[in-house]
Design goal:
This is WxL domain-containing protein. The protein is an alpha+beta fold. The chain contains 2 helices and 12 strands, in the order αβββββββββαβββ. Strand 2 and strand 3 (73-87) form a beta hairpin.
């Protein structure tokens, strides 16, 4: 090893360290020469045309249990947790012709071992629990499973209707509405055993 270059590198390193210490020492040596406070104020006016259209779901999960199976089809049933739509807007603030609706879409069922049951095997029968007194809120149509077949046998693959009104302003005074749905999963008897999960996404639109 070249002793001279090692000593030079060592000297440079020490000098750098001293320089950093010197900078830090200078910063800590500063003395405060004055201080003052500034109050930050804001006035928030009441909302005009306040209120909002919103949706809540009573629970973030539900379970299906085997019920009504036969030698050809296995059937599992359950209930969608109660969905509540709330509108706190003044009817005069709602655009003319506006209507709200709730749609549901399910993902495929998957098991911990990677087995899949397609979302087309999950159907529902919407149920309007409290549609208000106006009669302007309605439940969606029954959606059958692919195993059921027929024009409605599509499953919850793509945005199926849970509840709807074509007149948001006309029902706004009622304030809130509730609905749920009977859920039905049907599979062949050859389905692989296991614990399966699907996500049913509910969306509110206007």
């Amino acid at each position: 090893m070249n002793t001279r270059s090692f000593l030079l590198r060592g000297t440079a390193g020490i000098a750098g360290g001293l320089l950093l210490l010197g900078v830090a020492g200078t910063a800590f040596a500063d003395e405060q020469q004055g201080a003052d406070d500034v109050d930050v104020n804001v006035q928030i006016a009441p909302l005009t045309g306040g209120g909002a259209l919103s949706m809540t779901v009573a629970s973030d999960s539900t379970a299906l249990t085997e019920n009504g199976s036969n030698s050809v089809v296995r059937q599992f049933t359950g209930t969608l947790p109660t969905v509540t739509v709330t509108d706190t807007r003044d009817a005069a603030d709602i655009p003319a012709g506006a209507g709200w609706y709730v749609l549901g879409t399910a993902s495929d069922f998957t098991s911990s071992t990677g087995d899949i049951i397609g979302a087309e095997n999950l159907g529902w029968a919407p149920n309007l629990i409290d549609g208000g007194d106006s009669g302007l809120v309605a439940e969606g149509d029954v959606v059958d499973t692919a195993i059921d077949g027929g024009p409605d046998g599509v499953g919850l693959v793509d945005q199926e209707l849970l509840a709807i009104t074509n007149d948001s302003a006309g029902v706004a005074e009622e304030g809130s509405w509730t609905a749920n749905a009977a859920l039905t999963l049907k599979t062949p008897t050859t389905v692989d055993a296991g614990d399966y999960s699907s996500t049913l996404t509910l969306s509110l639109f206007e």
